[in-house]
Design brief:
Strand order of the largest sheet: 1-2
Number of strands: 4
CATH topology: Ferritin
Number of helices: 6
Largest sheet: 2 strands, antiparallel
CATH superfamily: Ferritin, core subunit, four-helix bundle
Helix content: 55-70%
Strand content: 5-15%
Number of domains: 1
CATH class: Mainly Alpha
């Protein structure tokens, strides 16, 4: 069945940049709130890391907020693009785990690595598919940031968990 030249399957595979930005903003906000709430509950060994993660997520929220206020993107956010393959995995990260009252370092690091990995993939795909302009530039920047965060977390995880080193 088609309506207006678009099959249902085709419509399911498309979204607007506005919708993508809304989901991404929610993703960053949920991470920020999660990490802020986690700060007093984590061990002192990784508290600094959780504080840094909360600050990074806050910075990403601010970037999306600033972009949303720019009049020069009003038309661009209406553009439709293909949903990325990473879209559902990215959206799944909006559901936060219950790490308990005193989460262990390994669980916190594993969660953070998984979240950074999903964001890295998603923002990278969006940077490749979004039309040229400020939104694509933002996705490129975020993909780079998330890649850097993931690598830092992997290094810390290896040092902390596999080598038994202190954080």
């Amino acid at each position: 069945m088609t309506r207006g030249g678009h099959g249902i399957d085709e419509l399911r595979g498309r979204t607007t940049l506005r919708e993508i930005l809304e989901v991404a903003t929610g993703f960053e906000e949920s991470a920020r709130d999660f990490y802020v709430a986690l700060i007093p509950r984590v061990s002192k060994r990784i508290r600094y890391l959780v504080e840094e993660l909360a600050a990074e997520e806050r910075k990403h929220c601010d970037l999306f907020g600033t972009l949303a206020q720019r009049p020069d993107i009003a038309e661009q956010v209406k553009a439709e693009i293909e949903r990325t393959a990473s879209d559902s995995k990215f959206s799944d990260c909006l559901h936060l785990p219950d790490l308990g009252e005193q989460p262990d370092d390994q669980a916190v690091l594993q969660y953070a690595m998984g979240r950074e990995h999903a964001a890295m993939l998603h923002y990278g795909e969006l940077a490749r598919t979004a039309p040229a302009g400020p939104i694509r530039d933002l996705f490129r920047y975020l993909a780079s940031e998330e890649t850097r965060h993931k690598l830092e977390l992997e290094k810390l995880y290896y040092e902390t968990i596999h080598r038994g080193g202190g954080v």
